[in-house]
Specification:
The complex is a heterodimer.
Chain A lengths: L1 H15 L25 E11 L5 E14 L4 E15 L7 E19 L7 E13 L6 E17 L4 E19 L6 E22 L2 E14 L9 E13 L3 E13 L15 E10 L1
Antiparallel strand pairs in A: 1-2, 1-12, 2-3, 3-4, 4-5, 5-6, 6-7, 7-8, 8-9, 9-10, 10-11, 11-12
Chain B lengths: L2 H15 L11 H8 L5 E3 L2 E2 L2 H11 L7 E7 L4 E8 L4 E8 L5 E8 L11 H5 L23 H22 L3
Antiparallel strand pairs in B: 1-3, 2-3, 3-4, 4-5, 5-6
Classes of the chains: A mainly beta, B alpha+beta.
Chain lengths: 290, 176
């Protein structure tokens, strides 16, 4: 079934190959670079993220994302995503068993505005906003409505004639998850919204070792602050780091990043944060421009 | 890494690798020479730049040569044809600069541009901005050379390259 999902997504991309395209690629799997699409250019991207491993039982999940992005000016781009999830959860403490091969997970949009060009201004800076709606919890695999707003500051500095690229992101992501609560006296069920703030910082360094080819490393710090409107209290955090490889030909590009979790606020008996995160992630992005 | 994980991800990579790249050669070296120095015989003056020369070029132009090999031809009228390349978005951009006997830019030609996008650096109006420039001119994007929006990397690198070749002419070829 997962293969079928990949085949469907690949077929969609093959349709995109019918016309000449130009890459506005991302050099890292998780850290955005500050470059944006030029005016009038349209790009499609496919993301596939494989997440594996909890403290107990069997956990593997895949996130698929199909994006269409357009450059409205040389500084401003907007895009729309369709997201899909797969979950295979068996015997994981605190999670219900779930077997779902591929399901529509939600929709999101992305808006990027470039303030400084890494090529012209010596330092790249882009602001990013991504509102989203989801119907399946990405970690638990359970159905439930959730809204989120991902806000990002993207920095990029190039060295060695633009052959060594450093990028860093600071991300704030408030989320609102719909739930229900039973009144203590009358037993009436009220709709409530659980609030959560995700704070992330990521960075990557990648070197162009051959025409079109980049290899580098990437690191990511992720944390969660529940009920953040009533004071900031970090519930959990995790630090990931791993290798990243990127290739771009001018018409298309791909990026693959493997990020194992190095450490985090411990789950019982472990030094990793495995309630909110997984032991390892592998992400592949492919992009084509029309 | 689990074999199963690879099995899931590899089809996407295979799809990507199956797609060919893009390469366009607009002018051969001989064609560029006949365009830039019509009816003139050009004599190759190839040489390897010394470390001190590279350092001097870098100091004077702000950019170091990508290669030690200097590929230059001397024209009958005393001008120079220099072949060079700079870093493009994915591949190298091959270009040539023609320099008059007085040390000013006669012409700039793009011989080989392999990117699908950013090919505006071949636009004659954009290249015309370099004509008449000599060593010491700023030759900087948004100063005396207009940026090409959406092709900033290519336009900046070609501009940097022309500035470097004028320094190479001044510090190496003019003294030969």
């Amino acid at each position: 079934m997962i293969f079928r999902a990949g085949a469907i997504a690949a077929s969609i991309l093959l349709l995109a190959l019918a016309t000449p395209v130009r890459a506005d690629e991302q050099y890292f799997g998780y850290t955005y670079s500050a470059e944006v699409l030029p005016k009038g250019q349209t790009e499609t991207e496919l993301w596939a993220t494989d997440r594996q491993g909890k403290a107990t039982g069997h956990y593997d999940a895949q996130d698929y994302r199909l994006e269409l992005e357009h450059g409205f000016t040389n500084r401003f781009t907007a895009s729309a995503y369709v997201n899909f999830d797969s979950h295979h959860i068996r015997g994981v403490e605190g999670l219900d068993n779930t077997e779902r091969n591929l399901a529509f997970q939600g929709l999101s949009a992305e808006f990027k505005y470039n303030l400084l060009s890494p090529f012209k201004d010596g330092f790249g800076l882009t602001l990013y906003a991504e509102p989203g709606w989801s119907r399946i919890h990405s970690v638990e695999g359970e159905k439930g409505t959730e809204y989120e707003l991902e806000l990002k500051a993207i920095a990029q500095k190039n060295f060695l004639d633009d052959r060594l690229i450093w990028a860093a992101n600071l991300t704030l992501e408030p989320e609102w998850e719909r739930g229900s609560a039973q009144g203590p006296i009358d037993g009436a069920v009220d709709r409530i919204w659980a609030k959560e703030l995700k704070l992330e910082a990521s960075s990557g360094l990648s070197y162009r070792f051959a025409p079109g080819w980049y290899a580098g490393i990437e690191g990511r710090y992720a944390s969660v602050y529940p009920d953040w409107t009533h004071g900031l209290h970090r519930e959990t955090y995790a630090v990931f780091a791993g290798p990243s490889v990127h290739y771009g030909s001018g018409k298309w590009w791909f990026t693959a990043t493997y990020l194992p979790q190095l450490f985090g606020s411990p789950s019982p008996g472990r030094s990793l944060a495995l309630d909110e995160y997984e032991k390892r992630e592998l992400r592949l992005k492919i992009g084509y421009n029309f | 890494m689990h074999r199963r994980t690879l099995v899931k991800i590899l089809p996407f990579a295979a799809l990507a690798i199956a797609v060919p790249g893009n390469a366009t050669v607009y002018l051969t070296v001989e064609q560029a020479q006949s365009v830039m120095f019509p009816h003139q015989r050009l004599t190759p003056v190839f040489r390897e730049l010394q470390a001190a020369e590279i350092e001097a070029i870098k100091k004077a132009s702000g950019t170091a040569p990508l290669s030690k090999q200097l590929q230059a031809w001397r024209a009958q009228d005393g001008g120079w044809f220099i072949l060079d390349r700079v870093v493009g978005k994915h591949e190298f951009i091959t270009y040539a600069v023609a320099i008059t006997p007085q040390g000013t830019v006669r012409d700039v030609e793009i011989l080989d541009y392999r990117e699908t996008y950013g090919g505006e650096v071949r636009n004659p109006n954009w290249r015309q901005q370099f004509v008449g420039k000599r060593f010491g001119a700023p030759l900087q994007i948004d100063k005396d050379i207009k940026n090409i929006s959406g092709a900033t990397l290519s336009s900046r690198h070609v501009t940097d390259g022309v500035r470097r070749l004028l320094a190479t002419y001044q510090l190496v070829l003019a003294r030969a």
